[in-house]
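Might I ask for a little of your time on a matter of protein folding? What I wish to show you is a protein chain and, alongside it, a tokenised description of its three-dimensional fold. I should value your view on which stretches of the chain appear to form regular backbone elements. You will find the record immediately after this paragraph:
***
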Amino acid sequence: MSILSEFKAFAVKGNVVDMAVGIIIGAAFGKIVSSFVGDVVMPPIGLLIGGVDFSDLAITLKAAEGDIPAVVLSYGKFIQTVLDFVIVAFAIFMGVKVINKLKREEAAAPTVPPAPTPEEVLLTEIRDLLKNQQKQ
């Protein structure tokens, strides 16, 4: 089997395609959360603590000199990234929690025993008749 045909067999497996779709959706979800945190959550928080823009919060370790840019510790962007992570982690936690709950409900659902076959019903009747005859 050639390398090309092996790769094709690997790439078209259902799990690989599902994983690729999940990664793409996850990346899009991450962008949505980043926008939500940066554009919706952080501005009101910044306003509440005195009109601070978190993306501008930084400590300059070394000022710019000529063509050399400044060395800056951007802790405001780090705070936003941490909030992004917390929101994504919480959303994933809630999704897993719902899936686990559905699995538990599915497992806990009582299984109805199958109805007896006509042969079993007939054999049960014969057994009961024989028991009754022995008692008499």
About this structure: The longest helix spans residues 14-48. The first strand starts at residue 59 and ends at 62. The beta strands are 59-62, 71-73.
